[in-house]
Design brief:
Blueprint: H1 2-12, H2 21-32, H3 41-61, E1 62-64, E2 90-96, H4 101-114, E3 118-123, E4 128-134, H5 135-148, E5 155-160, H6 163-168, H7 180-184, H8 197-202, E6 208-210, E7 222-227, H9 235-253, H10 257-265, E8 266-271, H11 276-284, H12 335-346, E9 353-361, E10 365-368, H13 381-399, E11 404-407, H14 408-412, H15 425-433, E12 434-442, H16 457-481
Parallel strand pairs: 7-8, 7-9, 9-12, 10-11
Antiparallel strand pairs: 1-6, 2-4, 2-5, 3-4, 6-8, 10-12
Keywords: Carboxypeptidase, Disulfide bond, Hydrolase, Metal-binding, Metalloprotease, Protease, Secreted, Signal, Zinc
Domain Peptidase M14: 167-475
Protein name: Inactive metallocarboxypeptidase ECM14
């Protein structure tokens, strides 16, 4: 059964073609960096028919979104490894457990911006702000804050001291580090490591729509959208989007009643890498890059934060294109946001979007609209909150982790600095496209930050798949009784 599991996942992740197992082993080894091993011919013959049957089902299920306008704007980069030494004098500082929440967080954010520091994450619920600094920058920031507040008003700790090593540990293992047991012990081989853009696109995971409903039900079908990777450095969001797609197909193929019901009544649209040029850049040059790679008016500073570029309550909150959260000079200036909107507007035979999940990291939170303001109540707030707490509960029942439910404006700090929540994909989709919309901020709330080790890929995928199933069931239940 181990070999059958291996066959099934390789078949799932192959290009649309009926492969024999012998044909498939050669190309997959290069992509997955696995150890060489022999497979008996009898086993190959035994499972060839299973491969063909599964591929036929897969071809019916998956329609690759052709000519979707989703761009790949990666600038030409030499095939070089990430220069780890560029992080050698950097570490990640966490400021936490402050006494005066609003004033301290506001001051910490403002001071970090003035010093042009990279803010990794702010969490109001967990009461921390993580900032990437050098020793000099960290000293300057702490001196400033202790002048404004007593040193007993907050705590400061280094959560990542060896940043190059933390970056290195997120990269795929070499084949020498993998054994045959590693390769055959789990069917989710693709999810043993993070995958670069070329690997994801090679296995037809660029933009996919899943559905098996009949034409007679077409007018009743609702769309469920899942996006990941809008911020390039958040690799776990891309892997999780791919995992949900994978597991949904596996459950359908196994005849799982819930999965069959979902795909017969819902269209699933997956976009695992919403920021392809930025994602590619994190694999070749700068692992912790956040924005896209678009040119700006400043020739020294490329990139726009796609998640601030949408045309809803847009504001250019940062004057400097060098900032990580630079929104551009006008709404939809980020080409990815512009083309994504065009795609949603122009897609033929599409159905109303009832569910939108935008995957991010990190902090273990469920965010609901609005992000731009805490003064504006969302429509249908009762159902929105029921859904949010249901998503959190489904994760907790699966893995034991508690994802805090919080209004997005508080998480993003828009209640302190309004520009921080402006122009978000969450608000734009909720206000213009989707009936219900959420951001899931994935693991962890501990000390890994964006550099979550690959061993977490499968557990995160499993807990978020549980949340997706809850959401899908909610939609179908709601539709039945309303």
């Amino acid at each position: 059964m181990k070999l059958a599991n291996l066959t099934l996942v390789l078949s799932l992740l192959s290009p649309v073609h009926s492969w024999s197992l012998k044909e498939f082993i050669s190309p997959i080894q290069e992509v997955l960096s696995v150890t060489q091993f022999d497979i008996p011919d009898s086993k190959i013959l035994q499972f060839n028919k299973q491969i063909d049957d599964f591929n036929n089902k897969r071809d019916i299920l998956i329609q690759e979104v052709e000519d979707s306008g989703i761009p790949y704007y990666t600038k030409y980069q030499d095939e070089i490894s990430i220069p780890l030494d560029s992080y050698s004098d950097n570490f990640v500082l966490r400021l936490s457990n402050w006494n005066q929440t609003s004033s301290f967080l506001n001051e910490a954010i403002t001071a970090s911006r003035k010093l042009e520091l990279k803010i990794w994450e702010t969490s109001v619920t967990h009461k921390f702000i993580d900032i990437q600094v050098t020793q000099l920058e960290g000293t300057q920031l702490l001196e400033h804050l202790t002048q404004k507040f007593n040193d007993t008003d907050f705590e400061s700790n280094i959560i990542i001291l060896d940043l190059p090593q933390a970056v290195f540990q997120t990269l795929p293992q070499s084949q020498n580090d993998l054994s045959l047991e590693d390769f055959t012990d789990s069917k989710e081989i693709f999810f043993k490591s993070y995958r670069d853009l070329e690997s994801i696109y090679a296995w037809k995971l660029k933009a996919l729509r899943l559905s098996v409903h009949s034409e007679s039900k077409s007018d009743k079908i609702k769309t469920f959208v899942v996006t990941g990777g809008i911020h390039a450095r958040e690799w776990i969001s891309t892997s999780t989007a791919c995992y949900i797609l994978y597991q949904l197909l596996m459950d359908y193929e196994a005849g799982n009643h819930a999965a069959v019901r979902y795909l017969e009544n819902l269209d699933f649209l997956f976009l695992p890498v919403m920021n392809p040029d930025g994602y590619a850049f994190t694999w070749k040059t700068e692992r912790l890059w956040r924005k896209n790679r678009q040119e700006t008016f400043n020739p020294r500073c490329d990139g726009i934060d796609i998640d601030h570029s949408f045309d809803f309550q847009f504001t250019s909150g940062s004057e400097s294109p060098c900032s990580d959260d630079y929104a551009g000079e006008a709404a939809f200036e980020a080409l990815e946001a512009y083309h994504w909107d065009n795609y949603l507007n122009e897609t033929k035979h599409s159905h109303p979007i009832h569910a939108y999940i935008d995957l991010h990291s990190y902090a273990e939170e469920v965010l609901y609209p609005y992000a731009y303001s805490c003064d504006i109540l969302p429509r249908d707030e009762e159902n929105l909150l029921e859904l949010a707490y249901g998503l959190s509960q489904s994760i907790r029942l699966k893995s034991g982790l508690y994802y805090e439910v919080i209004k997005a404006c508080r998480d993003k700090g828009a209640d302190l600095l309004p520009s921080m929540g402006a122009g978000s994909a969450l608000d734009y989709m909720y206000h213009n496209k989707a009936y219900w919309a959420f951001v899931l901020k994935l693991r962890d709330a501990g000390t890994h930050g964006f550099l979550l080790p690959p061993k977490h890929i499968e557990p995160v995928g499993q807990e978020i798949y549980a949340a997706i199933k809850y959401f899908a069931s909610f939609i179908l239940y709601y539709d039945h009784y309303v």
